[in-house]
Amino acid sequence: MGPELLQIGVDVSAIAVIIGGFMLLLIGRSSWLGHSFRTTIRPALDLVRRRSPMSRSELADGTILAATALAAMGAVFDRQFFAAMLAVLLWLSRPSVVRLTAEEHHLLAKISFFSIDLMIGVYVPIVIAQVLLLNWFLAASLFSVIVALSWPEGGGAIPGRRWQMAPVDH
Predict the structure, then answer these.
(1) Are the CB atoms for 91 and 8 separated by under 8 Å?
(2) Residue among 112, 126, 24, 22 at smallest CA distance from 60
(3) Taking a C-beta distance cutoff of 8 angstroms, is the pair 70, 144 a contact?
(4) Of the candidates 1, 29, 11, 2, which has an alpha carbon nearest to the alpha carbon of residue 134?
(5) The whole model's pTM is what?
(6) Which member of 105, 117, 123, 155 has the lowest number of beta carbons within 10 Å of its beta carbon?
(7) Counting runs of H as helices and runs of E as strands, what totals does the chain give?
(8) How many angstroms separate the most distant Cα atoms in the chain?
């Protein structure tokens, strides 16, 4: 089997994963995929969250900054126009992600989980497709977006820290 045939197979697989993600969005199962993925990575994020004095929105903002830097690195090193566009869009979306993840109270944070799960469910197939296509910077950048949206609530349980809502710039 030649390398060209293998590359065509990988490309078709990436397209199939993206089409499958689009179909999940159409039939309303993207939020299920997002919830499942977020639940899977939650133990690792809980471990980081317990050791950090930062609020959920501060962690999300830092992770979006990392995602922006990874996309910019993809634009520079891989010379991908899409990565440059993604870096700009991620930079512009920072305030929205901070607002979306600002709630620390467990019950109030549940209100925004449906939209967060839906967004994560859309991103997961795209990340898988980018890994298949060996676009490592784009895959890492989009995975960082998923992590930014997945930070768990409940920062008031950190010893020595008084619970307060995260500041939101309007």
Answers:
(1) no
(2) 112
(3) yes
(4) 11
(5) 0.83
(6) 105
(7) 6, 0
(8) 62
